[in-house]
Amino acid sequence: MAVQPITGMLRRGLITDLSIALGLGFAFGNAFWYGYHVPRTNARDNYYKKIEEQRATRQGI
């Protein structure tokens, strides 16, 4: 036989591609979530908390 069969290469490549894609997706998802979303959410919550405290102080509550 002049050409070797290519059995297993497609499966190995698919597993590698999926592993890399899922790993990078998870890494970048965490980077977005904890690097951008959580700090922005905390900043927003702190802003509204400060506004609410100012309102309560003005009303004497």
Automatic annotation (TrEMBL):
GO molecular function: cytochrome-c oxidase activity; oxidoreductase activity
One biological process term in Gene Ontology: mitochondrial electron transport, cytochrome c to oxygen
Entry's transmembrane regions: 14-36
UniProt keyword annotations, A-Z: Membrane, Mitochondrion, Mitochondrion inner membrane, Oxidoreductase, Transmembrane, Transmembrane helix
Subcellular location: Mitochondrion inner membrane
Pathway note: Energy metabolism; oxidative phosphorylation
Classification via InterPro entries: Cyt_c_oxidase_su7a_fun (IPR014368)
Main subcellular location of this protein, as a coarse class: mitochondrion
One GO cellular component term: mitochondrial inner membrane
Membrane topology label: Single-pass membrane protein
Functional note: Component of the cytochrome c oxidase, the last enzyme in the mitochondrial electron transport chain which drives oxidative phosphorylation.
Family, similarity comment: Belongs to the fungal cytochrome c oxidase subunit 7a family.
Protein name according to UniProt: Cytochrome c oxidase subunit 9, mitochondrial
Origin species: Staphylotrichum longicolle
